[in-house]
Fold this protein.
Amino acid sequence: MWLRSATRDDLETVSTMLSETWHDTYDKIYGHEKVEELTKAWHSVDALKQRLTKPMSEFVLADDGAEISGMAYASQTDQTEAMLHQLYVRPTMQGRGVGKMLLVEIESSFPNIRRFRLEVEKANDRAVEFYSDNGYSKIDETPDCGVKGSGIPAVIMEKVLW
């Protein structure tokens, strides 16, 4: 398994992987229809394409040569802070260290920032625990994870890097 930057050629595969991962994680929490709606908006090829060209951002993939096992996307929000927008691992690869590899890589992609922030769905206990185990602390909550009006309650977490 190696980590590499995403390219336009990867976007269809990443979109499919994100849809699979979201349905596996969130159908039981939010229902299939809500997950399908959010996946089409947030994980479409067009939405992913915009991330590839955003200044001061990084979009990395975990790739074993046969399949893309995970992805992470973050952007710098100011001179001292970056936001982890996405970190997802294919359900069949969860618990094998892929998420940790992606997290370490994405954090090291912004060497001059002081802290990393993220929003994680409040009901996703496994993800909240993963980030806590990797040095993130809860600092706040929001009723709208990702975008205003999403209706998905989230925990806002932060990790101070230096």
In short: The two ends are 29 Å apart (CA to CA). The mean pLDDT is 93. DSSP finds five helices and seven strands in the chain. The chain has one domain: 2-118.
